[in-house]
Amino acid sequence: MILEIITAGTYDSWNNFKMNIKITHKWLLDYLDTDATPDQVREYLSLCGPSIESVEKIGSDYVFDIEVISNRIDYASVLGIAQEAVAILPMFGKKAKFKENPLEKYNFKKYYLTHDRDIDNKKLNIEIKNKFLCPRFTAVIIDNVKIGTSPKFITERLIACGIKSINNVVDVSNYLMLAFGQPVHVFDYDQIKGETMIMRESKKGEKIVTLDEKEVTLPGGDIVMEDGSGRLIDLCGIMGGLNSAITEKTKSVVLFVQTYDKVQIRKTTMSTGVRTVASTFF
């Protein structure tokens, strides 16, 4: 599930969409080695980079409320703020360096695909009608999934950042986006009819019921995904379809990590009024 929260965003005088994200100080320190206090992080970064509008103490942690404008979406994540801190804090005499690069740590080099072993793979036929809709397509099927509650630290961080904890699969997708700034989406594999996914442009008047249970009438030219039965199961880059959502009965998951045509996403967002954090990232 792409982070399914409607942003409390606004447009500035240049028609740039602005939103706010929240991250916690302890989460930031997963990646950042610094001697700056939370208040110093807020003050110094706001002078030279991201506008951190407030820092609030919650329990034993602090929560940063950060304004993000559309031309600086690169810092809209925990890792993005850590990168800003590494560049800015030393100018004010504060130590700031990466503990490790998570983009190097978390990769697939130590894993290998199931077709390299004697394992019967699940099948998924993918067809992209227009390659310009999605310049980079990545998907993997994860089998034998057990739906349950998330680890406590994930739940606490999401709630502190204003995101409802739903279940372990949905929470991980939201956690990854806040951590790295890359929206991801998860489908229930068994709800994808015909084991087929076709990415195409929508036709004028087509409808999809999104994860928030609202029916959206599409103007046409929107990036959508249909399954083998012709049902629309994803309003790509914005919000998934309710008919392929993760439920307590889900056993297999399709994980999507995509790069979509940003112009198409912007047009759909403006014409339908459906704005999510994910659509702003894309």
Notes on the protein architecture:
- Residues 133-282 form the B3/B4 tRNA-binding domain.
- One of its GO terms (molecular function) is RNA binding.
- This is B3/B4 tRNA-binding domain-containing protein.
- InterPro entries: B3/B4_tRNA-bd, DNA-bd_dom_put_sf, Phe-tRNA-ligase_IIc_bsu, Phe-tRNA_synthase-like_B3/B4.
- With 282 residues, the chain is α+β, with helices and mostly antiparallel strands.
- The chain folds into two domains: 10-104, 2-Layer Sandwich (Phenylalanyl-tRNA Synthetase, Chain B, domain 1); 122-281, Phenylalanyl-tRNA Synthetase, Chain B, domain 3.
- The chain is 24% helix and 26% strand.
- The chain has helices at 25-28, 38-48, 78-88, 102-105, 152-160, 168-180, 262-272, 277-281; strands at residues 10-11, 17-24, 32-34, 51-58, 61-69, 96-98, 125-128, 139-142, 185-188, 196-201, 207-209, 215-217, 223-227, 232-235, 239-240, 253-256.
- Strands 7-10-13-14-15 form a five-stranded mixed sheet.
- A hairpin with a 4-residue loop joins strand 13 and strand 14 (232-235).
